[in-house]
Amino acid sequence: MYLEHFGLRESPFRITPQTDFFFDGAERGATLEALTHAILHEEGIVKVSGEVGSGKTMLCRMLLERLPAHVETVFLANPSYSREDILYAMAEELKLALVSPRASRALRELQEYLVRLYGEGRRVVVLIDEAHAMPAETLEEVRLLSNLESSRHKLLQIVLFGQPELDVALARPGLRQLKDRITQNFRMRALTAAEVGRYLAFRMRAAGYRGPEVFTPAAVAKLARGASGLTRRINVLADKSLLAAFTANRHFVTPAEVQAAVSDADFPALAGAARPVARIAGGIAAGAAGILIGGLAHWWLGERPPDPPRGRGAALADQAPAVASAAVPTPAVAHAPLRAEPAALALLAREQERRIAGYAAANQSLLAERIDAGRVRLREEPDSSYGIELFFTENSDPARLERFLGRARDLVPLEDLYVIPVASGARYRIRVVYGTFPDREAAAAAARRLPPKYQREFRTELRTFAELRRAV
């Protein structure tokens, strides 16, 4: 009902998982990268837990899309399988017709088939949703399935997705052997209020919205509290809030609309919801930091991003020795919403605005979004703030830049990447900048924590926003 009112091409807050709307903030992108690496390069069972509506199913869908073609995936969504049923369900997913009705013989047939697949260079991954609701004997069968192996390698990689009750079940003495086989644990945490704001902005723009932020800061804070930081609840409340704003013929959402949505949704309170949300959940941060470095290689397969011109000045290599972890640097300055305040417009001259607007993004949505974000940063950041210039290229092809941004969101928070078109006569060059920092020391420290791939491929330089503005 409100799509045309807000200039949207589709609903931004459906609760059905849509991979085009995957939000990689709040460590979601890092967790996906780490999960992919664990599945492709490690042995053992992987566990992902989180509250109802925290984004586990979306992560699972992204994983199914992300895994390469040589990986056969088995997705089991029925938690009521018996220990015999799960064998036949797996065989059905693999299009294997088991001959024997006896479970022991069926297991042998399944193992022989997995050995054949392994010999062909193919891997099999079993993704089990709602694992917390599985009977104990079925979970024990999962442990036995994890033991299937050739002479040297495991034949199955198993990923368990479940609510926190899964952790409780695994703590029982009867399942300690299964728990001991879990090599990686990830936990989907709730979003903080600041992350909820970025999530709302991302979903709106992914649905085609172009303009100032619809949700006011006060509305975002109220919505975050009402949703307890859970993405499914955020979607429900955001959808209802937009409908309320549409009904009132408003083009922005205030706390009044959010309150109406909260009252209508009537969500039950979560256990422990009164506690403040942790900024970084240890399970995700530790799991992702431990294995993310090794999982980045496949990101670069295919076309490289725009090549930086040679001889652009000293790289940061002399300042940044080897990177010890793949933790993504967080800009030290909190970002303002993508809304130009009138008092800040003087920082960017009208002619500069015109030159930026003259670059045609050719309907590339990510590119247009990051150009808008770069324009706002140029308007609002003080001269003394710093950004990390990743590259400055003559190649201004919108489609190529869009592909770069699509891959970049797997490595860094996309909301911290700014694309700045620089007019050069009738042509444009493109500058890509990461983050905003209060001083050179903070920017240099962040540059040393950039993903290793960026440090190898880009000759990064530190730029003040005064420099960036002058160059437009």
Q: Please, could you describe this protein's structure?
A:
This protein has 472 residues and is of the alpha/beta class. It folds into 3 domains: 28-188, P-loop containing nucleotide triphosphate hydrolases (Rossmann fold, 3-Layer(aba) Sandwich), CATH 3.40.50.300; 191-265, Helicase, Ruva Protein, domain 3 (Orthogonal Bundle); 305-471, no CATH class. Helices cover 42% and strands 13% of the residues. The strands form 2 sheets. The chain has a 5-stranded parallel beta sheet, with helices on both faces. The chain has a 4-stranded antiparallel beta sheet with strand order 7-8-6-9. A hairpin with a 2-residue loop joins strand 7 (417-424) and strand 8 (427-437). The chain is globular and about 80 Å long. Mean pLDDT is 79; it is low at 272-327 and 332-346.
Give the oligomeric state of the chains in this entry, treating copies of one chain as homo and distinct chains as hetero.
Answer: single chain
Q: How many beta-strand elements?
A: 9
SSE arrangement, N to C: HHEHEHHEHEHHEHHHHHHHEHEEHHEH
Mean pLDDT across the residues is 79
Radius of gyration: 24 Å
Strand order of the largest sheet: 2-3-4-1-5
The major beta sheet can be summarized as: 5 strands, parallel
Cα(first) to Cα(last) distance is 40 Å
Number of domains: 3
> What ranges have pLDDT less than 50 throughout 5 or more consecutive residues?
272-327, 332-346
Global geometry: globular
Q: Roughly what percent helix?
A: 40-55%
Number of helices: 19
- Beta-strand content bin: 5-15%
Q: Would you summarize the structure shown here?
A:
The chain is α/β, with parallel strands linked by helices and 472 residues long.
